[in-house]
Amino acid sequence: MPTRRRALFILAALVGLAVLSIALALVVGSIAVSPAEVFASLFQGADGMAGEVVRSLRLPRALAAFACGGLLALAGALLQVLLRNPLADPYVLGISGGAGVGALLAILLGLTTVGINGLAFAGALGAMLVVFGLAHGDGSWTQTRLLLTGVIVAAGCGAVVALMLSIAPEYKLRGMLFWLMGDLSQSNDPQLVLGVLTAVLLISLPFARELNLLARGADTAQTLGVAVERLRRGVYIVASVATAAAVTHAGSIGFIGLIVPHLVRLAAGNDQRLLLPASVLAGGSLLVIADTLARTIVAPQQLPVGVLTALIGVPVFLFLLARDPQTRR
Amino acid sequence: MTMPLLQAQALTVAIGGKTICRDFDLTLHVGECLAILGRNGAGKSTLLSVLAGLRAPQAGAVRIAGASYATLGPRRSALIRGWLPQARADAFSSTVLECALVGRHPHLARWDWESEHDAQIARAALAAVGLADFAARDVQTLSGGERQRLAIATLLTQAPQLYLLDEPIAHLDLNHQIAALQLFAERAAQEQVGCAMVMHEPGLAVRFCDRALLLFDDGSTRFGACADVVTAESLSRLYGYPLREIRDGEQRWFIPA
Question: Taking CA atoms, what residue in B is nearest to A227?
Answer without folding.
Answer: B74
